[in-house]
Design goal:
By secondary structure, the protein is of the alpha+beta class. The chain folds into 2 domains: about 15-115, 3-Layer(aba) Sandwich (Rossmann fold), CATH 3.40.50.300; about 125-163, no CATH class. It is built from 8 helices and 4 strands. Helix 1 (about 15-25) packs parallel to helix 4 (about 60-75) and helix 2 crosses helix 4. The longest helix has 14 residues, at about 30-40.
Length: about 160
């Protein structure tokens, strides 16, 4: 799970990613090194941090911290990656990087993104589910939901009549 605000562990960059595999029983340093490098490469951080893996994760920018948290989630080889408003605390340039990363990740993972940003949902999702007051109102291919919603409540929300 990746949250709205980055939540790196109070550990080094390396230990943030190695933490999950260690808990799952990986003890071999060479294996951990490979996992850390692979995950940092996937999220586009390796070139920025490969020479300072022992630095505190808190020394990274907010956008880098969010990508570190994504890398940490990937380190345990999840089937599903749940992201709760992963770009809400980020600037537009960093948001674009995270969205591009999500587009790449969906080739290998089921990625579920919770967002209130309709434009973002339209840009990054294959399927959209619209919930209202805790109930599923409509679900379907994103293009259909955004262009031909079946439910009036969905149509009103997408057209900005409320929310």
């Amino acid at each position: 799970m990746v949250f709205q605000k980055p939540n790196p562990l109070p550990k080094s960059i390396y230990e943030n990613i190695a933490y999950g595999p260690k808990i799952h029983g990986v003890k071999d340093k060479k294996v951990l090194d490979k996992i850390v490098e692979k995950c940092l490469r996937i999220v586009g951080l390796w070139n920025d941090v490969h020479d300072r893996l022992n630095d505190s994760a808190f020394e990274l920018s907010v956008g880098q911290q969010q990508r570190l948290c994504i890398a940490r989630a990937l380190a345990v080889k999840p089937e599903v990656l749940l992201m709760d408003e992963p770009c809400s605390a980020l600037d537009p340039a960093t948001t674009r990087k995270i969205e591009e990363l999500i587009q790449t990740l969906r080739n290998n993972y089921t990625v579920v993104v919770v967002t209130h940003n309709m434009q973002q949902a339209a840009r990054i999702s294959d399927y959209t589910a619209f919930f209202y007051i805790g109930k599923l109102v409509e679900y379907g291919p994103t293009q259909k939901i955004f262009t031909r919603p079946e439910n009036e409540l969905t149509k009103d929300y997408i057209n900005g009549r409320f929310g």
